[in-house]
Write a structure and sequence with these properties.
The protein has 82 residues and is an alpha+beta fold. It has three helices and three strands; from the N terminus they run ββαβαα. Strands 2-1-3 form a three-stranded antiparallel β-sheet. The longest helix has 7 residues. The protein starts with 21 loop residues before the first strand and ends with a helix. It binds zinc ion (2 copies).
């Protein structure tokens, strides 16, 4: 199950589970659409994999399968990738 992390690793902006601006790689590294396009150019800075739109979990399922609340924030990793 996807963790649905609550923020962008680059800029720490909030990415709630219903957000259509969340992008994710196969290892669940999570970024906002703005960082993905302008800074990362569609590539995950941690693993080099592609970043795609994160699927949204229906609200009815979030009660039983809640989104992660653990924030991951690595601004240094973002800079070196740019
Ligand atoms: Zn961002
Ligand atoms: Zn990654």
């Amino acid at each position: 199950m996807l963790q649905l992390r609550p923020n962008c690793e680059c800029c720490n902006t909030d990415l709630p589970p219903e957000s259509s601006a969340a992008r994710i790689c196969s290892f669940e590294c999570t970024f906002c659409a703005s960082c993905t396009e302008t800074v990362l150019k569609g590539r995950c800075p941690n693993c080099g994999g592609e970043l795609v739109m994160r699927p949204r979990r229906p609200a009815s399922k979030l009660q039983k399968f809640p989104a992660s609340t653990e924030r991951v924030y690595k601004p240094d990793g973002c800079r070196t990738a740019a």
